[in-house]
């Protein structure tokens, strides 16, 4: 969650940033970092610093992100490796480019800060050359890399369209919730999905779509539509381990739409991303999904128990894996 940084955050700010493993990667932060440093920073927040927010996870302060002349951020060490910068960075970058007059974005990282390099790459930034910044915490000039994100690249990373003989797979948009709600919330669909309810509340559907937006990397869901634009389902990819989901309107069942959509989806994803292995599962009482898994090329790897928000109790599932070679063997 993003919120304004306030005076009451001073103690948490000191606790998080008064760690050399954090401050060494920042240019203007001293080490040790004192309460007076925190007070001075909080009271200096103004338009010249751009927009700046505290990053919270639940009730815990995790770090800071800002955007103005550059995109800047840092996280407490306890928050590393959890995808927080990718999540909040997407929101901040989207808000920035939501202003049609906003300029291209700059950022930077020290060469040895591979975590920050990876986070910026996931946000769409590209390396445009080297530079040297002075690190107050290290009391040294440190080599770094300059990063750049153009509006055109940002827009391109929000577009994903696949066409088949009968279908168009496209990005989900906020206004799609009305068409998606009766599909995911159908009493024959929701119990086969992990996160849907029947009925599926409007707020849940909108939040689901917001999480499913395409941002140029795995972790998205596409709308499956007929050639005349009618939404008949969705197919997606994301999570750790990397897994897939799909749903088809029961009123359109029996026409091969799931196999057509999922097959085209994975052909495109294997071409675009370095996926390695994708896992999947279905509830044992969903034989239609079993047939689709087999047609796509998924390899059965075992069973287990799974949960759905639309089921009262865990239920048996069958687990699968898919690689590029397994998919190619079915084409």
Which key phrases capture this entry?
331 residues, alpha+beta, Aminopeptidase, 2 domains, five-stranded antiparallel β-sheet, four-stranded antiparallel β-sheet, 11 helices, 15 strands, 31% helix, 30% strand, elongated, Acyl_CoA_acyltransferase, N-acetyltransferase domain-containing protein, N-acetyltransferase
List the helices and strands and how they pair.
Blueprint: E1 2-3, H1 10-17, H2 20-23, H3 35-44, E2 51-57, E3 60-67, E4 71-75, H4 84-97, E5 105-110, H5 114-122, E6 126-135, E7 140-149, H6 151-156, E8 162-163, E9 167-171, H7 177-184, H8 202-211, E10 220-226, E11 231-238, E12 243-248, H9 257-272, E13 277-283, H10 287-296, E14 299-306, E15 315-323, H11 324-330
Antiparallel strand pairs: 1-2, 2-3, 3-4, 5-7, 6-7, 8-9, 9-10, 10-11, 11-12, 13-15, 14-15
Helix pairs in contact: 1-3, 7-8, 9-10
Could you please describe the fold and organization of this structure?
The chain is an alpha+beta fold and 331 residues long. 31% of the residues lie in helices and 30% in strands. It is built from eleven helices and 15 strands. The strands form four sheets. Strands 8-9-10-11-12 form a five-stranded antiparallel β-sheet, sandwiched between helices. Strands 1-2-3-4 form a four-stranded antiparallel β-sheet, sandwiched between helices. A three-stranded antiparallel β-sheet has the order 5-7-6. Strand 3 and strand 4 form a beta hairpin. The mean pLDDT is 95.
